[in-house]
Amino acid sequence: MKIAICEDSVTDAGLLKGHVLEHYGSSCTIEIFPNEIEFLENFKPGCYDIIFMDIYLVNEDGISVCKAIRQTDDNCLIVFVTTSPDHAIEAFQVNAAHYIKKPICADTVTAALRKCDKLLAKRLAFIPVKAERAVRKVYLSELIYVEVAHNTCRLVMKSGEIRARQTMSELEKLIRHSGGGTRFIRCHQSYLVNMDYITEVKNNCFVMENGDIATIRRHDRSAIKSAFEEFLFAKT
Questions:
Q1: Top-confidence residue, 162 or 180
Q2: Residues of the chain with CATH 2.40.50.1020
């Protein structure tokens, strides 16, 4: 576990570091940066699991720094630290994991880290998929949807797609047992979709992040749409 703290207050940076160490102990390494310039000079995609970012920095605001981060790294977890909640909407736009309001205390840092722990565990969940004479590990965080096509299952992921020698019911059960049941919904006999990748509901279909369309079955369309709305509210 690698953690970065970008904070221009020496006192607040020390408090954050202390509370993080109380939570993770020796299982993490922590780097502290007093400004965004030093942070960006050292930042590389994938180098940090969690980044604590002060919104009010000396030369630039933390939101702008995180927008630069998101250009190359979608996976690191960002926790904003600030004296004001005014930037909550902007924090949501850069997919922030949590928002800590100063003064910093152990309870708020612990709550943020518990949220990060859940997100990290979610990212590591996977299912074994039988494909092309081999068993492949498919991470649920990368799986956009599953489609039944020509008597096989087509798994569409962020990095490509594979054909599985398993039924939709078998894959659905694997996903449920791997902890991904709350993210995936069987919206049609032919589609099992990851609600994290739904961008909109249009013409009684789900539009996925990659532009593909998943049909919503007719007979319980309202219930499926309601389930998606509840999923969105639970994420906020």
A1: 162
A2: 126-235
Determine the pLDDT at residue 90. Answer: 63
Q: Of 3.40.50.300, 3.40.50.150, 3.40.50.2300, 2.40.50.1020, which CATH number belongs to 126-235? A: 2.40.50.1020
Amino acid at 98: H
Amino acid residing at 36? E
User: What distance in Å separates the CA atoms of residue 85 and residue 87, rounded to the nearest whole number?
Assistant: 6
User: What is the helix, strand, coil percentage profile of the chain, to 5?
Assistant: 40, 35, 30
Neighbour tally for 235: CB within 10 Å: 9
C-alpha angle 117/75/126, rounded to 5°?
65
CATH architecture of 2-123: 3-Layer(aba) Sandwich (3.40)
- For residue 89, the model assigns a pLDDT of 59
What is the arithmetic mean of pLDDT over 221-231? 94
Lowest-pLDDT range, 88-97, 110-119, 120-129? 88-97
Q: Hunting for tokens 């969105």 — which residue is that?
A: 232
